């Protein structure tokens, strides 16, 4: 049997032609076979039926279906591409939005940090300004108080100068005036008398080299307990340099070692004539008065020594220590106790 469309032989009674794809109508073939007809008619009629238009309609329908499928497939591809592209764009926009949000958060954090640092700086500057202002105020107050104190002292000194005894014409008289004023705790008069003594002092440095050499020799003799020879050398040294306070003090200490109280008293008067504000000299003078049983004068000398001490609290502690030393005579300890009691009333 052959294909009715292209005439290709159909093997094993195939219905669809392997060459053109035409479908053979088996019913018509059966009908044709069953009709008895002349051989010529049989040959001619199939040729006329081959010319019918029904097979092309079926082929056209298949093409339409194929085209429709391709169109649908194209639409599906386009739609899928659009969906994929849209999803990509959405994902891209979401990622971009996330990046922008993160950047904005970082910028906000940075701005917050800047503002925090600025607030801290302003707070520190404010605190520093307040501290400086407080220190300035305290300094100004202290200066004002000091100026007020100096003015009061100046006025007190001027008043004390008016009350200065007329007989304070020399250093000895001024020294006596200081001791008398200390009895009444008139420390302004004590200060005025000390100024007067300093103004009357005319001692000038001498041959420092010779004096220093003699002083060293005297120190060596004193260490060997040759106090009399040491005293002689110290006096010679003072003749060479009468302004040397160190030599004066060495002489006084050695005179006390030899219990030469009167000479020690005279040496202390010479020291006070040079420097009336030397605390050590007034303390040693109190010792002289104690040995002479002049208790009130000794107490007054200790009060004056305390008044001229650079560190009054430290000096008071030294006075208290003397009262607790057993090697110090009882009379001198009583004098120190009386002086401490008097000082505490200032």
Automatic annotation (TrEMBL):
Q: Which SMART domains match?
A: TPR
Q: Where are the TPR repeats?
A: 211-244
**Superkingdom of source:** Bacteria
Q: Show the Pfam families listed in the entry.
A: TPR_19
What keywords is this UniProt entry annotated with? Answer: Coiled coil, Membrane, TPR repeat, Transmembrane, Transmembrane helix
- Does the record's keyword annotation contain Transmembrane helix? yes
- Report the transmembrane regions from the record: 64-85
Q: Which residues form a coiled coil?
A: 99-135
Q: Which Gene3D superfamilies match?
A: Tetratricopeptide repeat domain
| InterPro entries per record | TPR-like_helical_dom_sf (IPR011990), TPR_rpt (IPR019734)
On whether Nucleotidyltransferase is a keyword of this UniProt record, the answer is no
Q: What is this protein called?
A: Uncharacterized protein
Q: Which organism is it from?
A: Polynucleobacter cosmopolitanus
């Amino acid at each position: 049997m052959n294909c009715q469309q292209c005439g290709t032989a159909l093997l094993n009674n195939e219905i669809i032609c392997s060459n053109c794809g035409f479908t053979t109508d088996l019913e018509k073939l059966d009908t044709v076979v069953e009709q008895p007809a002349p051989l010529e008619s049989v040959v001619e009629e199939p040729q006329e039926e081959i010319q019918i238009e029904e097979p092309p309609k079926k082929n056209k329908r298949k093409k339409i279906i194929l085209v429709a499928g391709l169109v649908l497939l194209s639409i599906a591809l386009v739609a899928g591409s659009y969906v994929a592209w849209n999803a990509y764009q959405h994902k891209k926009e979401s990622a971009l939005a996330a990046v922008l949000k993160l950047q904005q958060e970082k910028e906000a954090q940075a701005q917050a940090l800047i503002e925090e640092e600025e607030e801290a700086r302003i707070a520190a500057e404010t605190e520093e300004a307040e501290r400086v202002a407080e220190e300035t105020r305290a300094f100004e107050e202290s200066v004002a108080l000091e100026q007020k104190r100096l003015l009061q002292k100046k006025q007190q000194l001027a008043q004390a100068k008016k009350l200065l005894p007329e007989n304070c014409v020399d250093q000895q008289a001024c020294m006596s005036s200081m001791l008398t004023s200390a009895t009444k705790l008139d420390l302004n008069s004590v200060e005025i008398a000390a100024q007067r003594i300093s103004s009357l002092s005319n001692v000038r440095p001498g041959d420092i080299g010779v004096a220093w050499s003699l002083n060293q020799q005297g120190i060596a003799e004193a260490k060997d307990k040759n106090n009399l020879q040491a005293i002689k050398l110290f006096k010679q040294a003072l003749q060479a340099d009468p302004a040397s306070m160190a030599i004066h003090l060495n002489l006084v200490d050695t005179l006390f070692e030899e219990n030469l109280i009167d000479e020690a008293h005279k040496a202390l008067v010479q020291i006070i004539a040079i420097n009336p504000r030397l605390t050590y000299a007034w303390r040693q003078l109190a010792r002289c008065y104690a040995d002479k049983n002049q208790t009130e004068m000794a107490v007054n000398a200790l009060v004056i020594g305390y008044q001229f001490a650079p560190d009054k609290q430290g000096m008071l502690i030294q006075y208290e220590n003397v009262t607790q030393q057993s090697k110090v005579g009882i009379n001198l300890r009583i004098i120190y106790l009386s002086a401490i009691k008097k000082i505490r009333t200032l």
